[in-house]
Structures are given as structure tokens and as C-alpha cells.
Design goal:
two-stranded parallel ribbon, alpha+beta, 75 residues, 3 helices, single chain
Length: 75
């Protein structure tokens, strides 16, 4: 994900992406790792907003709950 964003920023010749969409959930990567990566991108200023589609609602709900409980991630 990080590499993909970096390559997109270079290709688009910009410093940030307005909305980063995750279109298909990666079943191999733990949800906390995905959420941490998304939060890191937002905190670094490389992404303004995050959106997720084609993902079961329970996964999104679990990720948001984890983020709120950790108190560090504000997506």
C-alpha cells in the first residue's frame, strides 16, 4: 500500500492524494496492519481521506472499533 501510494504520487506529480480508495480487501494482511498503514498515510499528509469499498461491513466495523479502542487512529 505504501509503495503504491508513493508511485501514484510520483506519477501524478503531487504531494498528496485527496481520497485513497481500497477496492478489494486483502485477506492476507491483518486488519490492524491495514488500519495502521492507512492512518500512517493520513498522518504523513500523503492522503487526506480514506474510503473502502467491496468489503464486508463486519470488517469495516471491526477496523473502526479497533481504531477507536487504540485511541491512536482517527480514520
Amino acid at each position: 500500500m505504501m509503495r503504491s501510494v508513493e508511485e501514484s504520487l510520483k506519477r501524478l506529480q503531487t504531494d498528496f492524494i485527496d481520497v485513497l480508495y481500497l477496492h478489494i480487501w486483502d485477506d492476507l494482511t491483518p486488519i490492524d496492519e491495514v488500519m495502521r498503514g492507512l492512518d500512517d498515510l493520513v498522518r504523513m499528509g500523503k492522503v487526506n481521506y480514506v474510503a473502502i469499498s467491496d468489503t464486508p461491513a463486519w470488517i469495516i466495523s471491526k477496523g473502526q472499533t479497533m481504531a477507536e479502542l487504540m485511541g491512536e487512529i482517527n480514520l
